[in-house]
Amino acid sequence: MEASVAARSLIRVAAISGSLRKASYNRGLIRSAIEISKATVEGVQIEYVDISPLPLLNTDLERDGTFPPAVEAFRQKILEADSILFASPEYNYSIAAPLKNAIDWASRPPNVWADKAAAIVSAGGGFGGGRSQYHLRQVGVFLDLHFINKPEFFLNAFQPPAKFDSDGNLIDEQSKLRLKEVLLALQSMTLRLQRK
Ligand SMILES: Cc1cc2nc3c(=O)[nH]c(=O)nc-3n(C[C@H](O)[C@H](O)[C@H](O)COP(=O)(O)O)c2cc1C
C-alpha cells in the first residue's frame, strides 16, 4: 500500500538549461538540483534534457504534424514530464536564444507545455539572471505553464566568494539550501495541479 502511494506521487521533472556551454553555471544548477533531489527530496526525479540537438525553429521542417527527429524526441520528453525546471541564463536582459528555440518547438500544436508546473533558477551577472526569469514567466502565460511564485532563485555568479568551481559545479552551500526549497515548492505545486 505504502509503496503504491509512493509510486503514484513520484513526480518526474524535465530540467532544461538555456546555456549550452560545457562549464555552464546554469547547467551546474541543474546538476546540483539532481544531486539534491536524489539525496534529500523524496518523490522528485529530475532528468536533464539536452536542447543542443534541436535545429533552429523553422516551420518548413514540419511535415503533416510531424517534426524532425530531435524535435520529436524533445517534445516527447516534455510531454512525459510532470513539471519543468528551467535554468535560464540572462542574455542581453532576456531569455537565451537556445532556450527560447526549445520553448517554441515544444509550443507547436499540440503545445506540450500546457498545464505543467514549472520553476526557474538562474545564475548570471548583477541580477543573477532575474530579467530572463521575468521574460520567461511572461512567455509561460501563453504556454499555460504554472510557475511557482516563491521562492525565487537568482544567483550572482561573479560576486566573491566563488559560487561555482571551474567545471561549473555549484559549491556554495547556502545556494544549495535555497535550491532545495525551490524543488520542494515545485513538488508541492505539481502535486496540487494533479489533484483530482
Ligand atoms: C550573449 C550574452 C549576453 C549576456 N547578457 C547578460 C545580461 O544581460 N545579464 C547578465 O547578468 N549576464 C549576461 N551575460 C553573462 C552571463 O550571465 C554569463 O556568461 C553566464 O555565465 C551565462 O550562463 P552560463 O554560465 O550558464 O553559460 C551575457 C552573456 C552572453 C554570452
UniProtKB/TrEMBL annotation:
Per UniProt, which keywords does this protein have?
A: Flavoprotein, FMN, NAD, NADP, Oxidoreductase
- What's the domain of life for this entry? Eukaryota
Question: What InterPro entries does this protein's entry cite?
Answer: Flavoprotein-like_sf, FMN_Rdtase-like_dom, NAD(P)H-dep_reductase
Q: Where is the NADPH-dependent FMN reductase-like domain?
A: 12-157
One MF term from GO for this chain? FMN binding
Cross-referenced Gene3D superfamilies? 3.40.50.360
What Enzyme Commission number(s) apply to this enzyme?
Answer: 1.6.5.2
Catalysis performed (reactions): a quinone + NADH + H(+) = a quinol + NAD(+); a quinone + NADPH + H(+) = a quinol + NADP(+)
**Obligatory cofactor(s):** FMN
Question: What GO CC terms are in its UniProt record?
Answer: cytosol
Q: Which protein family is it in? A: Belongs to the SsuE family.
Q: What does the subunit section of this Swiss-Prot or TrEMBL entry state?
A: Homotetramer.
Q: What does this protein do?
A: The enzyme apparently serves as a quinone reductase in connection with conjugation reactions of hydroquinones involved in detoxification pathways.
Protein name as it appears in the record: NAD(P)H dehydrogenase (quinone)
Species of origin reads Malus domestica
